[in-house]
Amino acid sequence: MNENRRLHTSSNLRNTLLSEISVGISANSILLLFHILKFFCGHRHKPTDLPIGLLALIHLLMLLIMAVTATDIFISWQGWDDITCKFLLYLYRVFRGLSLCTSSLLSVLQAIILSPRSSCLAKFKHKPPYHISCALLLLSIFYMFISSHLLVSIIATPNLTLNNFMFVTQSCSILPMNYLMQSTFSTLLALREAFLISLMALSSGYMLTLLCRHKKQVQHLHSTSLSPKSSPEIRATQSILLLLSFFVLMSILDSIISCSRTMFLDDPTFYYIQLFVVHSYATVSPFVFMSTEKHIGNLLRSMFKGVINV
Fold first, then answer.
1. pLDDT, position 214
2. What's residue 295's pLDDT?
3. What CA–CA distance (Å, rounded) separates 117 from 123?
4. Domains of the chain, start order
5. What is the pLDDT of residue 155?
6. What is the percentage of the chain residues whose pLDDT exceeds 70?
7. Contact status, residue 25 vs residue 64, Cβ threshold 8 Å
């Protein structure tokens, strides 16, 4: 009975994860398509368009790799060799890192946009977009370096069952590293995450301060019976703050579940839950960005009407 219940739970978690991946791929594709069309049609560009478009592309590629990986997580076929395991899983981890880098960069950029002219950040407002691309490129190179140990530690699962191997997919496992190497790369990863999340926290706190100041000014200028519409910058800032809060929450849950996997001897149930939590941000973020773009709503409505007329 317990075994049947466990299989039923695993099946539900698998279907939930696959549904989440499908929704995320569709939403990020629409968001990326919108920004591509916006670029080629010559519409007025906002400074945040580039990082949002990059984030949609990164999440799309990450979810596509996860969709391929999911076939090997849930199907016991032992079909991948060492090269396939290393390539796909290393690429997947790099895109996860780029998601964090781009989100942090986006939060800093939005703080700069929202800053008043008297602020020390105002001088960065008119920097060209390629500065953003250069910063993201440098962060990407650094993250690819500190993730390079995966090219050694990820292997095709051997035929012998060994307790010290960590399950990744049916074909791939993580080889345990020696203490020195594991400590070095863990420290570098921790420093990277601490730095980027600190940037998020500082920029978020700064934006919250500016929003509170703006709210007080609006209340002073307008009566409470009136509900003046917030500017596009304010709405964009609120969306980014919402996303950053969601990202931090999912990161905390990811850490808790990772510890639980270790305590419960790599239980597959915790692994499926962890995968669901990890990809929640990539699935939710495009909907938040699309909610602030009126043009996307108009585009989706026109597409929907076109499909009905056909």
1. 65
2. 63
3. 8
4. 2-220+228-297 (1.20.1070.10)
5. 82
6. 72
7. yes
Q: What's the pTM value of the predicted model, to 2 decimals?
A: 0.83
Instruction: Determine the Cα–Cα distance for residues 59 and 65; give it in Å rounded to an integer.
Output: 10
Please give the full DSSP string across the chain, using - where no structure is assigned: -HHHHHHHHHHHHHHHHHHHHHHHHHHHHHHHHHHHHHHHTTPPPPTTHHHHHHHHHHHHHHHHHHHHHHHHHHS------HHHHHHHHHHHHHHHHHHHHHHHHHHHHHHHHHS-TTSTTGGGTT--THHHHHHHHHHHHHHHHHTTTHHHHEEEPPSS--TTSEESSSSEEEPPPPHHHHHHHHHHHHHHHHHHHHHHHHHHHHHHHHHHHHHHHHHHHS-TT--PPPPHHHHHHHHHHHHHHHHHHHHHHHHHHHHHHHHTTS-HHHHHHHHHHHTHHHHHHHHHHHHT-HHHHHHHHHHHHHHHH-
pLDDT digits (tens, 9 = 90+) for 262-291: 666 556 777 888 888 989 999 999 988 887
Strands 172-174 and 154-156: antiparallel
Q: Helices 232-263 and 268-278 meet at what angle, rounded to 10? A: 170
Four-CA torsion 154, 160, 164, 168, nearest 10 degrees: 40
Contact 238, 114 (CB under 8 A): no
Using only C-alpha atoms, what is the Rg of the chain? 22
Average of pLDDT values for 252-258?
Answer: 80
Contacts of 264 by beta carbon, 8 Å cutoff, 6+ apart: 270
111 neighbors 157 (Cβ within 8 angstroms): no
Q: How much is the pLDDT for 231? A: 63
Per-residue pLDDT tens over the stretch 139-177:
777 777 777 777 878 888 766 555 567 777 888 888 777
Cβ density class 116-139: b for 16+ within 10 Å, e for less = eeeeeeeeeeeeeeeebeebbeeb
